[in-house]
Automatic annotation (TrEMBL):
The keyword ATP-binding does not apply. Gene3D superfamilies: 3.40.47.10. The lineage of its organism: Bacteria, Bacillati, Chloroflexota, Ktedonobacteria, Ktedonobacterales. This is 3-oxoacyl-[acyl-carrier-protein] synthase 3 protein 1. It comes from Reticulibacter mediterranei. InterPro entries: ACP_syn_III_C, ACP_syn_III_N, Thiolase-like.
Amino acid sequence: MNYRTVGILGAGYSVPPHVRTNDDPIFAQLKRTRNTQGIVEQDLFTGLKERRYLREDEHLETLMIEAAKQALAQAHVPASAIERLYGYATVSPYLTPNALYTVHKGLQLPQHALVVPINSEFSNFLLSVIQAWEAILAGHCTYALVVCGANWTQYMDYTQGHSISIGDGAGAVVLGPGHSFIPLDYATQTLSEQYGAMTMSVRSTMLNGRHYIPVDTHNLPVPTYEITQEEGIHSFMTAGMEGPPALVQRLLHKHGLTGQDIALISHQASRLMLDYWTQCIQPREYLETLEQFGNMTLATYPVNLAYYFQHVTAKYLVIVAVGVGFHQAALLFKR
């Protein structure tokens, strides 16, 4: 059966109870190294007050399951009705399979529910919504659940400037036949020449003149995120700053809309970015939680949607994501 209208029926989010403020001792080791352009990486990440973090004995999947339960309850859709589970857990305990399968188990979703991990940091949520929307329109399922979670506070090099912005969290939405937050259109941009400027990988460190790979208590390599001092900061200052407003304006122009018609959710790494995007797009509402939750990477988008779900007044919503690779995506909804 094909449905003419698909919408987001419910949303939920969960963040850890532990709060890390700007004066936390973990940030005392931040380096103030300048790159060849004279930029100190830490200075790019402004406007932070608090961010939430998971402790070593706590699990990201717990947040994802709680967020999903909230979304299902708000949508009035039982877990037994979900036929597709999209999203991503990062960093998952294993390279593969992704911990999205643990979410399937924790929610007791039916065995016939297809699990589809989308590995596209940080646009995982947007691409998952697009996949779910198209699957429902095609008649392949009736209800889909999207869940994204990030625990990057455990995978940071706390000598690097970007680490000051990172927080943990998880968000979820249910899509199905309905008239709430209806996906209308999307736009994307891929700048693959910037591949490698921002990465998550296992990195060797010098010790006593030899390279070694840091390991955790289970003797497994520990991945860490890196923004390279030259290419990474250049990406931040150019494509990262200029790309999202250009993409949003392209999408709005196509549908005869302006910034005053929309509520906006975006990547929230820095007040520097948010202020610039506000100036360029001039949205009616900017739905952000930078001071409360920091940069939750891929979880930022569903968390903020759930946080403001009942309070959006603009007729349209745009969610715009930036991501490593380098790529950007924007998705337009009608409220």
